[in-house]
Amino acid sequence: MKVIEYDPKYRQDFIDFNTAWIVNNFGFLEQEDKETFENIEQSLKAGAMIYFAIDEDTQDAMATCMAKPMDDTSWELCKMGANEAYKRRGAGNAVFEAAMQYAIDHGAKRLFMLSNSSLKPAMHMYETHGFHEVKLDNYEYERGDIAFERIISE
Questions:
Q1: d(CA 19, CA 136)
Q2: Which pLDDT tens digit goes with each residue over 98-145?
Q3: Residue 111 phi/psi, 5° resolution?
Q4: I want to staple 6 with a disulfide (CB 3.0 to 4.6 A). Which of 2, 40, 50, 64 is the partner?
Q5: Looking at residues 10-38, what average pLDDT do you find?
Q6: Residue 114 β-bridge partners
Q7: First to last CA, the chain
Q8: DSSP-based helix, strand, coil % in the chain, nearest 5
Q9: What is the b/e burial string over 128-147, where b = at least 16 CB atoms within 10 angstroms of the residue's CB?
Q10: What does 123-143 look like in DSSP terms, one character per residue?
């Protein structure tokens, strides 16, 4: 497995993996999801990066994760999805770590994530990577009921 930065040939995999995961877990895409998928190139131009874990033999995308700036020092990690054929091979963890490092390398002092409390394996991964729950007044997505942040120490 290798982890690469965004390559347009994997654009549809980013959309498909995330769409399948969201629909399988929550039944429908929200408007914010659709806007993200429709504006990938604009997000990249604004500083975001999407990572893919690639199977080196087949060149299939295994997993994906996006890091995007919220402001000068806060970055959101989002749209993490995986190819069902490559479950439990460490690809999700690999793209998550690459996205975190990209954000840190580009000035992040705070990493942020929205999630759902029913997703126990995901929450365990966030906590393993130093994220802690934060309370919000608005979770942006209907499916969002929990948020996490990690403060990057100097």
A1: 25
A2: 999 999 999 999 999 988 888 888 888 889 999 999 887 765 677 778
A3: -105, 140
A4: 50
A5: 92
A6: 147
A7: 31
A8: 40, 30, 35
A9: ebebeeeeeeeeebebbebb
A10: HHHHHHTT-EEE--S--SSSS
Burial of 126 (0-12, 13-18, 19+ CB in 10 A): buried
Tokens of 43: 């997000």
E strand segments, the chain: 2-5, 49-54, 61-69, 74-82, 110-115, 132-134, 146-151
Beta bridge partners of 61: 54
Kindly report the CA angle at 154 between 46 and 114, in degrees rounded to 5? 50
Residues 92, 56: Cα–Cα separation, whole Å: 16
Six token digits for residue 129: 């990577």
Residues in the chain: 154
Q: Is the pTM of this model over 0.85?
A: yes
